[in-house]
Amino acid sequence: MANATNPAFHLLDPADDHAGARVRRIGGLTLWAETLAFRTASAREFLDVTEQVAAVVRRSRVSQGWVSVFSKHTTAAVVLNENEPLLLEDMGAMLERLSAAGGLYRHNDLSRRTGEMDPEECANGHAHCQHLLIGASENIPVGDGRLDLGRWQRIFLLELDRPRDRQLVVQVFGA
Fold first, then answer.
1. Which residue spans within 27-145 are E strands per DSSP?
2. What is the pLDDT of residues 113-130, one digit of tens each?
3. Which ranges constitute the DSSP H helices of the chain?
4. Can you name the residues that pair with 25 across neighbouring β-strands?
5. CATH superfamily assigned to domain 18-104+124-174
6. How far apart are CA 159 and CA 124, in angstroms?
7. Which of 22, 88, 138, 147 is the residue whose CA sits 20 to 30 A from 68?
8. Across the beta sheet with 6-11, what order do the strands follow?
9. How far, in Å, CA of 173 to CA of 24, rounded?
10. Closest Cα to residue 34, out of 44, 26, 42, 24?
11. Which runs of consecutive H residues, i.e. helices, occur in 5-110?
């Protein structure tokens, strides 16, 4: 079945491994894409999504290649690091020092803002500035059908704003 918004991909039949995945096969190469949904609980929350990304890689059946994990948000990032609670606290404190939530941001003056605004818009200039320092995506090699991460590396969705519904696009490419 062709996807009306992107005919290069097709949606899997619900009888397949994962309904909603978008798949393109060219020769011996596969491009597999899924969008994962999460609900974050707080600002500077490091949500470990490694197992969810690994499950997408397994469903793709790609043995050798790459996986890209991309945040669809300007105030939520994707990072690789160690899942050690005190380190996560240190990294959150570092982000606060670099771009404090209580700082002065023109973006937070909603009376002067131009352009489209969400009805739930809030003062989150700090989250946008923190995102600028981090980025929206990470690329991880896939080897033998598994994430080829270092011993301590984990994949995190990093919430920079407030509790929100968030989406990550996970694309796996390879053979």
1. 29-39, 45-48, 65-71, 76-82, 137-143
2. 887 888 888 899 999 999
3. 50-60, 85-98, 125-134
4. 30
5. YjbQ-like (2.60.120.460)
6. 12
7. 88
8. 2-3, 6-11, 22-26, 29-39, 165-174, 65-71, 137-143, 146-147
9. 10
10. 24
11. 50-60, 85-98
Average pLDDT over residues 91-99: 97
Tell me the one-letter amino acid at 32: W
Query: What is the domain partition of the chain in residue ranges?
Result: 18-104+124-174
Write down the pTM of the prediction: 0.88
Residue 99 carries which side chain, given as an amino acid letter? S
The answer to whether residues 6 and 137 touch, using CB atoms and an 8 Å cutoff, is: no
- Structure tokens belonging to residue 94: 């570092």
Q: Is residue 108 a contact partner of residue 124, using CB atoms and an 8 Å limit?
A: yes
